[in-house]
Amino acid sequence: MKIFHKTTAVVAILFLLCSYSNVNAQSVPTKTIYFLAGPKDHAGEEGSGRHETRRDLLVLQHCIDSISNLKGVKIVTKFSYKRDALNIDDLKGVDAIIIECSAEGSSKERAHPIFPPSNPGDKSYDKATLDYLAKVDSLHKAGMGIMVLHWGITTTNQKATQYYLSWFGSASMSGYTRNPLGFWEVKPIEAAKNHPILRGVGPFNYKDEIFSRMLVNPGDPYRTDLLTGTIQKSNQGAAEPLGIATAYDKNGARGMLWGGMDYHSALLNDNYRRFVLNAILWTAGVDVPAGGVKSTAKQLQLSAAKADNFDALKPEGFVLK
Questions:
Q1: Which residues are CB-neighbours of 38 under 8 A, at least 6 positions away?
Q2: Domains of the chain (ranges, CATH numbers)
Q3: How far, in Å, CA of 251 to CA of 284, rounded?
Q4: Nearest residue to 31 via CA among 286, 247, 288, 289
Q5: In sequence order, which residues have a C-beta less than 8 Å from that of residue 184 and are 6 or more positions away?
Q6: pLDDT tens across 263-299, in order?
Q7: CA-closest candidate to residue 268, choices 312, 319, 321, 199
Q8: Which residues partner with 170 through β-bridges?
Q9: How far from each other are the two terminal CA atoms of the chain, in whole angstroms?
Q10: For FRET with 14, which of 73, 109, 145, 306 sits at 20 to 30 Å CA-CA?
Q11: Other CB atoms closer than 10 Å to residue 320's CB: what's the count?
Q12: For the whole model, what pTM was predicted?
């Protein structure tokens, strides 16, 4: 009889433990982040160190896959290079798409993973494209975050610009938006210091071409300005402090434009990389850990900056840190 009771007790305990484990495993949410790289269509071949759309996103994917201080959520990542189909299926079930590419109107060939090529001044797209974009927009409104990096923030087709204003609360404007290339001094905006994207992010100095000074709706309650950047010398001259990054959260639909990410080696800068990785998590609806994402970018495709003619633009006494 004693043996029977002991056996029964052991079985019951094992059953409870298994049940708890299953419930606990099921309670951990899963977030899917999809990295979409447009073709490297200028600034040399792969390995040149600039406009490394594929390599940049592979490094970021690696960092997201190996975050050491994230708990309570499971992250699944996907990657696509030169996505060109008007196919909505691969976006379904995705919590955020992270895009690095050229402007949608920069080439007669497809440069943008979401938008087809168009000519400057085009007002819209054909019906098939409009139907597809309406589905992308529906996914976004339902909670799929969208983050666009570097030249991809620029739109030429008026319909694409309208979508950007809806998704990000900002868009580029010809003759107004700038892209100075040189050595930047970047600082978090004091009023935004409590935003999750800025957790663990301090000032940083680095070399980049940043598409900045965007068209925005002043006082938009859904937009948070995150960073300012100052550049003393550049290929476009000096620039007053510019707002260079904003986060947009409209009823749970999150959007982020980041006009930097030209120099591949910038990912070696801890504050810069932490800012970008925090932004990726935030865009996907993941709670950014205290102190920001802990990661390393030590990967074969990541190498130190190569010298080029823009080193001559380095301000007197400028120290990279």
A1: 53, 82, 99, 100, 101, 102, 110, 111, 112, 113, 152
A2: 29-313 (3.40.50.880)
A3: 14
A4: 286
A5: 205, 206, 207, 208, 210, 229, 230, 231
A6: 998 898 899 999 999 999 999 999 999 999 998 876 5
A7: 321
A8: 216
A9: 73
A10: 73
A11: 12
A12: 0.89
